[in-house]
Amino acid sequence: MLVFTAENIRPIQTVSICASISEVQKHLQRHKDRYLFVREDDEIVGFVKARNIKRYEDFSSLLEEMTPLDRVYSITCGQQVPDVYKLLGEDIILVRDENQVLCGYLQRDDIIIELLRQDETIDLFRTILSSIPLGIFVVDRKGYMINYNVEGLRMIKMDAEQIQNVKASEIFGAEHIDRVLSTGETVLNQLHITPQMGILADYSPILNKENEVKGMIIIVQDLPMLEELAMELDYVKGLNKDLNAILSTVYDEILVVDSEGRLLRFSDNKMSDFWAGDMNELIGKNLVELEEKGLFKPSVTRLVLERKKKVSVIQETAQGRKVLAVGTPVFDEQGNLDRIVIASRDITETTKLKSELKQVRRLSEQYKKELVDLKKREMLNRNIIYCSPKIERIMKYIEKVAQFSSTVLLTGESGVGKEVFAKAIHQLGPRSRKPFLKINCGAIPENLLESELFGYEKGAFTGADPKGKIGYFRQADKGVLFLDEIAEMPLSLQVKLLRVLQEREVIPVGGVQPIPVDVQIVAATNKNLEQLVEKGLFREDLYYRLNVIPIHIPPLRERLEDIPPLAYYFLQKLNETYNTNIQLAPDALNLLEVYPWPGNVRELQNVIERAVVTIDDDMIDADQISRLLQWKKLDTKSKPIITNIMPLQEALEEVEEQLILLAMEKYKTTTMAAKMLGISQSSVSRKYQKIMKKRAEKSKIV
């Protein structure tokens, strides 16, 4: 029976957890103990190995290696030891009293010595001695070897015959052996190196009940093995240090979970907003249960346990935060799930930024579209000069219809600028990056117009290009084809044009295979197509095919507000072309405003250019403009003042109209006419415009 009492156990030497390294070293010099117990307030919380103190400059660093008491085997003082083998497998055994209060400790050496004291346990001792992985030698009072184990012989590289009746001092440190046998002290961690071996030896005395030295035990550890273990330990510590450094720099939070879903450890990058508490309190808890409590959902741990493969999910917390969690399973050698490594990243702000980025992109696309529209309008404003409400309404209408591919029919007098408005439809629509082609149906002979429009195959007729030709319809594919003077198209070609509008395909001259085309048709004419249809000069079915979106361009005399900007625009272009600086006098501009412009915008452009070319100085005055205008073509014949009985007011208006027309015909300018009539220039200008407008409307009715 093996029992330890207070006489056998080693007393506990304690130091405060707040002690300095120097205080600890002084304490060890006084007590020379192997283990140093750490005290926090009045409670012992663990112990450290005394030999490790030399490696540290401060005691707080050593405390990181402190062994807690609850991890050390303990026995009760005065009671039989239940398992001797268990005691021999431990480096240190705690001894507690009946109230479980720590009262001392034992080392493996103490157990072995106690076994030697009891004769009835000698056989058991020898059996145990041979199974201990350390080298053990028993020395008697005279210093001779009396027992040993196989592991010890291996370490000193000797056999049993060589060690018989040999003094221990011949193999181990003689001074240490003499010290132990003479004083009864314990000598620890003594290095002994020879050409045959390298060992670390502990010398402990064997004492009887009267504390007399009866012998000693030498415990030997193989130095190469220790060095290997130390190197391996340093390597593992280095790996652990590197791993902690890597994890501390990783943005993600790393969790390690066991095969049951319990949290084992975590990195320092904790998402406190996600876990809503101290992560240390979650160690050992099942993360699947946290999902059931509503802390977050879904649980990536649960999904990995179910699927046994890598899983990526977006988790949402009770506080509304979003976390990207990636769970990776780790399998053992048998293919069983052993661990789950979870990498989590808070993407709440990322999701918010992504949403904001989408919104910014939408705004960017909107701004880009608006910028493109502004650029298109700017280009149009360079070509379409106006300030009248009539053209403003037409332009708004064109901006709307240009977004579609419907056929547009432009009508208006010759010279109003129908081609300019056709180009506006092209530039404002989705086909602006595709071709815009124009063909004058009245300027090309009938026998050539068909081949120009539809193209022809090689050898289609005499004189044809051997390679064939692609017609305007195919050249303008995906774009806009402007058919000017559509009323001049022969009836024979009107049938083929109708087929193109209906079937969206063309057949080249000399060909049989129809070719699909995608072309928007914009037609223009200065004639009344309805009257031509009634006279049989234009196909009715083609007219209705063309008249899908009719747009009438008013003549210049009906939009007098556009005359000044147009005149200045043409003058500016000519100045830039010829590097001149010619100006337009106010009275000349007044004259332009009262002129009816039968030739519309084209006539205005010609008059400005003729004035620039023929002028002698840098100012165009009213006299020069008057000489260039076709006054004689206007109806200025005198009317009889009294032809029959009429209301007085009507007669006065007739006389006023006749006088103003005569004055303008004779003096050409509103300034001179006003001077001769004795009224203001503005009155003459206003009344003359009213007269010319009335005559234009009357002419239109006729």
TrEMBL record:
Residues 307-359 form the PAC domain. CDD domains: AAA (cd00009). Residues 350-377 form a coiled coil. Signal peptide: none annotated. The keyword Protein transport does not apply. InterPro entries: AAA+_ATPase (IPR003593), AAA_lid_NorR (IPR058031), CBS_dom_sf (IPR046342), Homeodomain-like_sf (IPR009057), HTH_TyrR (IPR030828), P-loop_NTPase (IPR027417), PAS (IPR000014), PAS-assoc_C (IPR000700). Residues 384-613 form the Sigma-54 factor interaction domain. It comes from the Bacteria. The keyword Coiled coil applies. GO terms for biological process: regulation of DNA-templated transcription. Keywords: Aromatic hydrocarbons catabolism, ATP-binding, Coiled coil, Nucleotide-binding, Transcription, Transcription regulation. GO terms for molecular function: ATP binding; DNA binding. This is HTH-type transcriptional regulatory protein TyrR. It comes from Polycladomyces abyssicola. The lineage of its organism: Bacteria, Bacillati, Bacillota, Bacilli, Bacillales.
